[in-house]
Amino acid sequence: METLRGLAIILMVLGHVIGGTSRDGLQVADDSIWRFSYYALQYIRMPLFTVISGFVYAYKPVSRFTTNSKFIAGKINRLLIPLVVVATLFYLLQYLYSRN
Q: Pick from 33, 48, 42: which is nearest to 15 by CA?
């Protein structure tokens, strides 16, 4: 399951890096092998990631936690803190890049 989870994450990241059009992401040409792989895997990436996420989430259901605060604290540590850090860095980089 962990290997499949890693593969799903890699496929999702590659999809975002390549981008949906030749003006997004790496800005690869429409006739490149990267664009072909993006389109070939578009119906596998998100469903695979979603199904595996559901299985992983089911391994630790909310009912296993004695209090909701422990569950919420875990979610904050794994999701909210990285979101704030990455969003702040992204905003700063976009701001600095747009000034040049």
A: 42
**Does the model's pTM come out above 0.85?**
no
Tokens 């990267």 found at: 34
Query: Domain locations in the chain?
Result: 1-59, 63-100
Do residues 93 and 99 lie in contact, with contact meaning Cβ atoms separated by under 8 Å? no
- The angle formed by the CA atoms of residues 13, 89 and 98, to the nearest 5 degrees, is 100
DSSP string, the chain: -HHHHHHHHHHHHHHHHH-SSTTSTT---TTSHHHHHHHHTHHHHHHHHHHHHHHHHHHS-GGGSSSHHHHHHHHIIIIIHHHHHHHHHHHHHHHHHHH-
Report the pLDDT value the prediction gives residue 11, as an integer from 0 to 100.
85
pLDDT of 32-66, one tens digit each? Answer: 888 888 888 888 888 888 898 888 778 777 677 67
Residue 63, both tokens? 């009912």
